[in-house]
Amino acid sequence: MQPHRSHDVDSPDFFLKARVPVLRNILGAMGWAVLTCIISFAILAAAKALLPPQYWGAHTGLARFQREMSLPLLLFWVLIYSPILETFLGQLLPLEILRRFRVSEPVSIFIGSILWGIVHYLSGGLLHAIVALGSGAMFSLVYLRYRAPGVAPAYTTTALARAFNNCLLLIAVAYGIDA
Fold first, then answer.
1. Which residues, in sequence order, are CB contacts of 177 under 8 Å at separation 6+?
2. What is the pLDDT of residues 116-169, one digit of tens each?
3. 40: burial class by Cβ within 10 Å (0-12, 13-18, 19+)?
4. Pick from 171, 141, 134, 172: nearest CA to 158
């Protein structure tokens, strides 16, 4: 019989050790989502106060999706599909490419948020782009914050933060606060 090593799966504390980083990432994602939601609403309020309505652009908030989709499809889109796809296209691809070129983290966050703002400008106008700049910067920050152990923790934590953020936005829209 071989002695157990600390990395053996059948070790009694293996699963306890494995749960700690996962739980930390889930709780971190929830915290980042709340912070991103607060920042997004602050940016939205400031932009609406400073910009005349004719510059706001198309209405692309969650309320539009709420009107156009059934509830199960909306929940799938907002809480599962969108965070997975947006994290891949908005953080993983651009930030990993910038990382290969050894671009600094602050510059990577700036470039990532600009790219995310441009995509949202094309789909929803200036107001949508301004809010997306803030959330894009936050999600880029989250991705880079959790990148040290590897791509998987960074991707999953950022995707979870997006899902939690979208959940908070969905609740805000349900209560009449349209983002």
1. 41
2. 999 988 888 888 899 999 999 999 999 999 999 999 999 999 999 999 999 998
3. buried
4. 141
The tokens 């959790």 sit on which residue? 146
Contact 173, 145 (CB under 8 A): no
Question: Within 10 A of 157 (CB to CB), how many other CB atoms are there?
Answer: 25
In degrees rounded to 5, what are phi and psi of residue 22? -65, -45
Judge contact between 176 and 128, C-beta under 8 A.
no
**pLDDT tens digit sequence for 64-92:** 666 778 889 889 998 999 999 999 999 99
Cβ of 2: how many Cβ atoms within 10 Å? 5
**H helices within 11-150, ranges in order?**
14-50, 62-68, 71-76, 82-87, 93-100, 105-124, 126-145
How far apart, in whole angstroms, are the C-alpha atoms of residue 22 and residue 8?
Answer: 19
